């Protein structure tokens, strides 16, 4: 027989089933709501600021954006190796990023008009020739330092007074043959051909004039005729006359060997660098025919401009008036193939 449980519900008064909570203060509730709103507001603001500042808490997917390639379709295939679009580390080329840049090097010897020629180039608003960079020995101590220096120059990261703006169209330097150029000629030729560097040879036809200029300049390095200051180049006729007042004595017995040595050096340099894209210029030709400067601008593929220089020539007139022992020089050169140097001249 199953057990039967019976539950008896007691009847209680109605009011006894209602649980009454203590009455809360409305001011406390308002404060709680206000604090909640403030916390939410601070949180929302912090999230917005992080998103604006580029530091989102959630890592978003990113896709690499390819840089716009510069259009070279209108450039002839044979000229493309000499057209460059450098990306300097020191500044942004901005709207000129796709303006092509040509690389060049002026290869010359001291007292051959290279300083004057370089000022002509730098008067062009789109050409930057950075001077005699390798006159500092440490920069030419070995081929590694030479390449490192060249890379910096051609990447537009070398700053001198000649540096132009981001729209430079041709950049280069002046490089003397005795500044590591001949010593490392094989590596430098390889660099020029690989990097598309064009060579501008600049020499003097009359090597006797060059020798006299060297002797006078060497004298002034010690004498310092211009108020105790040595200057290789001047910007006034007054200063030019003072420097030209010194007349050197040429060692006639060593004259021909010295001329031959320079002549061999010049010929050897042109032989070494004949595989590069190059142009050969002579100081006397530029003096007599200024259209040679048009040839240079066309060679560098820059817009044609009238080029100018503030430099004033120091030694003018006939050679006989510039040395003390002209008679000895005439005797030494008569009957040799250097005899023409005695009479060659050019208009100024």
Automatic annotation (TrEMBL):
InterPro entries found in the cross-reference section: Nod_factor_sulfotransferase, P-loop_NTPase
Transmembrane segments: 27-49
Keywords recorded for this protein, A-Z: Membrane, Transmembrane, Transmembrane helix
SUPFAM superfamilies the record matches: P-loop containing nucleoside triphosphate hydrolases
Name recorded for this polypeptide: Sulfotransferase
């Amino acid at each position: 027989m199953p057990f039967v449980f019976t539950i008896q519900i007691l009847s209680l008064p109605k009011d006894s089933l209602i649980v009454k909570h203590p009455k809360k203060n409305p001011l406390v509730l308002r404060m709680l709501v206000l604090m909640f709103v403030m916390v939410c507001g601070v949180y929302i603001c912090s999230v917005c600021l992080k998103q604006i500042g580029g530091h989102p808490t959630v890592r978003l997917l990113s896709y690499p954006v390819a840089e716009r390639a510069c259009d070279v379709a209108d450039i002839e295939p044979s000229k493309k190796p000499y057209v460059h679009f450098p990306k300097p580390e020191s500044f942004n080329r901005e709207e000129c990023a796709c303006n092509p840049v040509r690389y060049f090097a002026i290869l010359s010897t001291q007292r051959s008009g290279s300083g004057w020629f370089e000022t002509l180039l730098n008067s062009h608003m789109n050409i930057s020739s950075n001077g005699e960079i390798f006159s500092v020995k440490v920069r030419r101590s070995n081929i590694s330092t030479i390449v490192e220096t060249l890379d910096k120059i051609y990447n537009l990261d070398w700053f001198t007074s000649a540096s132009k703006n981001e729209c430079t169209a041709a950049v280069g330097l002046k490089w003397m043959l005795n500044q590591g150029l001949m010593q490392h000629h094989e590596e430098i030729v390889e660099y020029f051909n690989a990097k598309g560097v064009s060579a501008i040879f600049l020499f003097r036809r009359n090597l006797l004039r060059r020798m006299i200029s060297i002797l006078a300049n060497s004298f002034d390095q010690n004498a310092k005729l211009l108020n105790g200051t040595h200057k290789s180049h001047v910007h006034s006729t007054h200063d030019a006359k003072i420097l030209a007042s010194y007349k050197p004595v040429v060692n006639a017995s060593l004259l021909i060997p010295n001329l031959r040595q320079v002549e061999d050096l010049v010929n050897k340099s042109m032989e070494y660098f004949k595989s590069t894209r190059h142009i050969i210029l002579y100081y006397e030709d530029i003096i007599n025919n200024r259209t040679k400067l048009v040839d240079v601008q066309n060679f560098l593929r820059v817009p044609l401009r009238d080029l100018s220089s503030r430099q004033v020539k120091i030694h003018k007139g006939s050679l006989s008036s510039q040395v003390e022992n002209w008679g000895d020089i005439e005797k030494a050169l008569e009957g040799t193939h250097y005899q023409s140097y005695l009479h060659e001249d050019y208009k100024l």
